[in-house]
Amino acid sequence: MNHKPNIMKLSYKNCFIAVFVFAFFSYIPTPFFGLSEIKNTFTALADDTIIISGKVLGPPQKPVVTSKAICADKKLSIRLDWPTDENSESFDIKRNGELLATDIINSDYEDNDVSSGISNIYQVIAHGPMWPGIAASDEIAVFTPTACIIAKPPFTQEIRTLNNVPLEKYGNNPKIEESRPSFSGKTNIPYAKVEISVSGSPQIYQTIFANVNGFWSWQSSETLDLGEHTIIAAAIDPNDSNNSSSSSFTFTVYKEESGNKDKEKDSHTKKSPSSGTPSSIPDEVELLEKSSENPPFQITAIVGNFNHYVFLGEKLSLQVDFSKKTSELEDKDYQIFYEIINARNEVIYVDSQYLNVLRTETLNKKIPISALASIGEYRIRVKAYDGKILIAGENFFSVKELPLVNIGFCTLSLSQIIGSLGWAVIGILLFFLFLLKREYRKTDEEIYQVNEKYLKKDGFFSNKKK
What we know:
The protein is of the alpha+beta class. The chain folds into four domains: 4-44; 58-153, Immunoglobulins (Immunoglobulin-like); 155-400, Immunoglobulin-like (Sandwich); 414-466. It is 20% helix and 37% strand. The longest helix is centred in the C-terminal third of the chain and has 44 residues, at 414-457.
């Protein structure tokens, strides 16, 4: 019994020696081949250099923009060019401080919506994946020639991007995974009213407004079901409701993103700061399923604050119009939701009330924002829900610092005044204050000497003995 472990160890040793001997003598017929193969292998590893090439992207470069006014065939346009930057993925264009176009992938842009004899200020903003992810060009002023005779262009409206990607990149059948897609477009009418409808499930009807450059953007506030959807964007001239233009396309949602419904539910169940009670849209939304393309009514949200500016400490003045009512509108109360959305598309305020839309034409509401919003860009969205269909109206506003100077057409805050004056001007003011103080002291000393002189003359002071 005591010798069995030694026998096992011996047998393992014998097997190992046998395998080694077999492997060694297998090379005897061609010993030089085995040795040379090993030598060549180690020589290759020692002498050869493996090169791995790659490029590390940097932050977006500041675009250096050149411009040119083009007048040809009774058409006037402004062409902008800037150098190609491999660190930038897309570009945004601003005209006179407002967005004109987004997600431009080329290093040039042509603005066809200009008038003769005016000056426009342009800025190009580059976006890239590396920090800080953004770089803005200097603003450039472009004057259009007054001698250019142009024909009045027809009313145009087009949808340009889907989920921040130009439509031409998708081909004939856009397919997306995002179930709450975003869109942007352009019309050549400033502040045009844009009526958006999305078919499929759910059916969505929403009214928004373009900015002064005719640019608009919109993101679905509801989760779209898988399958085909058609979006129609109809722009209407604010000065002539009969003048309109529309565009449309069909896209497919082919994969639902996980967690979208939970995120949507969380965004709708935030508590209203004013009431302290949750206002939410039920999960089991029964949406309208019929062939009609028109909703039973339309919502238009109008911001009453001057220039859509709301100063900290003030209230958002909101006017809600209920129009285009059809015979399908029932005489009952509908739940109206009010939402404020920040630049990150986060709902930061929710409130609601019940209202008989059939008996209401216009609703005025004041919303306090001082405790809700900081300085920045926001949107106000008004929704109506009756268990069958969702209808919404949306508009934009800006929260500004409370001005020190406000004379209607001109508002200046403390930061703007300091920024406009600059430290050089402040230094000059401090220098004049120093001179003023110096002159005051000199005058005070002269008055003291004169008084002392007359007091001595009257005998109140006597000359000191040496």
